[in-house]
Amino acid sequence: MKFYPINLNVENKKCIVIGGGKIALEKIWGLLEAGADVEVIAPKVCAEVEELFAQGKINLIREEYSEEKISDGVILIAATNNFELNRKILADGRARNFLVNIVDDLVSDFTVPSRIRRGDFLLAISTGGKSPGFSRFVRQMLEKDFDENFAEGLKIISEYRQVAKKFFPTFEERIKFWREVLTPEVWQLLKSGDLTALENKIKKSLPTS
Questions:
Q1: Residue 41 is inside which H or E element, if any?
Q2: Spatial contact of 31 and 9, defined as CB atoms under 8 Å apart
Q3: Nearest to 115, CA basis, from 26, 12, 17
Q4: DSSP 15-35
Q5: Please, how many CA atoms are within 13 Å of residue 171, restricted to the half-sphere of its CB?
Q6: Rg of the chain, C-alpha, whole Å
Q7: Helix 148-167 to helix 184-192 angle, to the nearest 10 degrees?
Q8: d(Cα 141, Cα 94) in Å, to the nearest integer?
Q9: Angle CA(92)–CA(15)–CA(77) in degrees, nearest 5?
Q10: Which residues contact 116 (CB under 8 A, 6 or more apart)?
Q11: What pTM, to 2 d.p., does this model score?
């Protein structure tokens, strides 16, 4: 199966997680990180989920799953250890136009990739659902190569993106400009943390008038 990669804006949007164990917790954290309004439905939850509820970060319905509890929302994640229940949640969610994810099941509408997030910089790693363990392994191997310098470098590039628009009025001109600026040298500057040199390189690449 080939998935179409997108970055979905779920900020302030209701997303529902069915289940309260460690796997559900991982999904909850990812949704909170993206600013979602998270609701958890489960009769029992792990201590970490309980703490998130106590801190007011999630809404918690301490009940068994039932169809009428998912009347609205954007994303529905089934993270229970009951195969038949997960499949029922899938059918119920699709009937209500949710995007549905069943943990470790390729019948899902989407998968949640392993990811490295540094500020607004996000690197997603997916195996098309073939091996989540391999995705995690690759993420762990790459994490040390993508530190906070990439978040700070992105801020600089974003600022100069607005400046570049004044010099290059067309989309094609701006694409050409950034292709000429973002060379392997920039990669090394980011890895070394020489953000001053990065900014100077961008400045020198802009027209003088």
A1: strand 37-41
A2: no
A3: 26
A4: EEEE--SHHHHHHHHHHHHTT
A5: 0
A6: 21
A7: 140
A8: 36
A9: 50
A10: 122, 123, 125, 139, 142, 143, 146
A11: 0.83
Tell me the C-alpha distance between 196 and 189, whole Å: 9
User: How far apart, in whole angstroms, are the C-alpha atoms of residue 71 and residue 98?
Assistant: 10
Average pLDDT by consecutive 10-residue portion of the chain (209 residues)? 86 97 95 97 97 98 96 95 93 96 84 90 88 91 94 96 94 95 96 96 88
- CA-nearest of 44, 9, 39 to 27 is 39
Helices 195-205 and 148-167: crossing angle in degrees, nearest 10, is 10
How do strand 114-118 and strand 99-102 relate by DSSP bridges? unpaired
Distance CA 53, CA 40 (A): 9
